[in-house]
Amino acid sequence: MNVLNEENLFAQLKQEEPNLLDSLKKLVRIPSVLTEDKTPYPFGAPIQEALETTVRLCEELGFRVYIDPDGYYGYAEIGEGNEMVGVLGHLDVVPPGSLENWETHPFEPVMKTGKMYGRGTQDDKGPTLAALFAAKALMNMGVTFPKRLRFIFGTDEETLWRCMNKYTQQEEMPSYGFVPDSSFPLTYAEKGLLQLQLEADNETALSIEGGSAFNAVPDSIVYQGEDQELLVDALQELSFPFEEAENGVKILGKSAHAQVTEQGINAISLLAIALHHIGKSTKSIDFIANEIGEDPYATSIFGNCEDEVSGKLKCNIGMIDIGQRETISIDIRIPVTVDKEEVVQSLINVADNYSLHYKEVDWLKSIYIPKDHFIVKNLMEVYQEETGDTVSEPISAGGATYARAIENAVAFGAVFPNRPKVEHRPNEYIDLTDLFSAMKIYAKAIYQLTR
């Protein structure tokens, strides 16, 4: 790769570390969860505040900036030339879930044991700012950018990607780039992401509501209704964790990102199984208890659905709402070589047995960038040179990143091999040593890609 003055780069990166931390604290304090409020902003006032705060920071750092008048996205750019390199990050976060599972407040950043705790520290405010301040360190060195470098800030990544849909309709697209929203060394394949709802009229008196997002394994759900004592007996018999709640029973699961559904315990599934066990029946309850149960792969519906590149299909019940209508909100991660329509038809065939109707909410096609592609080879070279890690291979993942939004892009960090991924979980944090290491890798990557 091109020669870069290591000593000067290290000095400039060290100088920017306190600024990175201060900026990250400000962003974490903004609870940028999708909000339906009376403001004119598409995703609510908190997300708009996060977007405006980030764009204003970029302007102060010396970037040319733009913010979409409708509030869907913003970007910051430096450099010259016809060709553009993109770095894409998102400013929205998933809901924190039950606050009692947090040791500190999710939107009040806390520094302890070499980590910063708070929602968004790992996903994706911390890595996005690390890449931004990496570019700032290069700017401080007087590095010029013969290709334009554009940071693109999305605001709806955790839900429906309406931000990137709007960006691609209205703006110039990068020729290639990376997304600091996954793991090192890099992610070259991402499963197809299908979000859907199964719906029906509720013909019973049962009423249940729980879960917070399609892509988060629900860590708890409260049942308030008839036969609570019978439910408690069933939970004990099934060895499902629970606790008494105000006027109800709280079933306890374990949160996880939907891309690693098997690492969580789905509280909605546990409740459905227990209710079915005591004879409580609705279309949704019966479907979940009979067809999915505790199986994160939904094998009874999809069979052994997997491929060599990206592994098994993952199925997560993220939310349930049983009122006048029954609605199950489901997130499915489809292996990159598997046909989406086959998966959908398998689900429809089973759902029809319960008079549940399929409604597609969102679909993000899979990506697969071969390992000999220039972006993979360049970023692997940067990663290996900086870390000395020549063992770790490019990986495939079930997560959906903005790498799908542009051509010739991969997810690149910021979680290092053998480090825990705590995104979407209580007590989310970023390890500061790793954050600063990622910043140095991003600086070298940006330098290399803009040459």
UniProtKB/TrEMBL annotation:
| Matching NCBIfam families | dipeptidaselike, PRK07205.1
Q: Name one Pfam family in it.
A: Peptidase_M20
Q: Does the keyword Zinc-finger apply?
A: no
Q: Tell me what this protein is called.
A: Uncharacterized protein
Which family is this sequence assigned to?
Belongs to the peptidase M20A family.
Cross-referenced InterPro entries, in alphabetical order? ArgE/DapE_CS, Bact_exopeptidase_dim_dom, M20A_pepV-rel, Peptidase_M20, Peptidase_M20A
* Co-factor(s): Zn(2+)
Provide this UniProt record's keywords sorted from A to Z. Answer: Dipeptidase, Hydrolase, Metal-binding, Metalloprotease, Protease, Zinc
Q: Give the GO biological process terms.
A: L-arginine biosynthetic process; proteolysis
Extract the GO molecular function terms from the UniProt entry: acetylornithine deacetylase activity; dipeptidase activity; metallopeptidase activity; zinc ion binding
Parts forming coiled coils: none
Give the signal peptide as a residue range, or say none if absent. none
Report the domain of life of the source organism: Bacteria
